[in-house]
Structures are given as C-alpha cells and as structure tokens.
Amino acid sequence: IYTPEHKRVHGYYVFPFLLDGELVGRVDLRAERGTGRLRVPAAFAEPGHSDTRTAQALSVALREMADWLELDDIVLGDRGDLMPILRAAS
C-alpha cells in the first residue's frame, strides 16, 4: 500500500529487523545496483531492547544483505535513533 511521503514514519521501504525472534528495529533499505551500493537512509530501534546489541547485529546483517545482493558498499544515512550507534558499530 502506497503511503505519501509526508505520512511515512520510518521510510519508503522499511524492513523489520528481528533478533532472537523479536522485533528489535526497523530499517529503510535501497539497493542501488548501478553504483553497487546498499543505501540505508534510516534505522530505528524498538523500545525495550539493547540499542548497542541491535546495532551490532544489524551491522552484520547489512553486510550479509549487501553480499547476497552482490553490492560492494553500504552507505548509512542520518535518519533514525539507531543510526549513530549503527555508524559506530560498522
């Protein structure tokens, strides 16, 4: 279902991020195949979970996703409360 940009909370195409079977975060992803990049415009933590643990696990998962998609680089954006910790973990 299309959501106009001004009504989007977490981004355009948001993936749930599960850790040990629990929703711990949400991440907006874009595969830019022409440039070989996995762009991560936004990453958000879910309340009640360790942001550090989530960011560390998400960093590994993003590398796995980029490899699976045959993309060389991961480009982190600046939106979301998890992004500073994710940037430090990458």
From TrEMBL:
InterPro entries: AlkZ-like (IPR009351)
Pfam families attached to this UniProt entry: AlkZ-like
Source organism superkingdom: Bacteria
Protein name: Winged helix-turn-helix domain-containing protein
Organism of provenance: Nocardia cyriacigeorgica
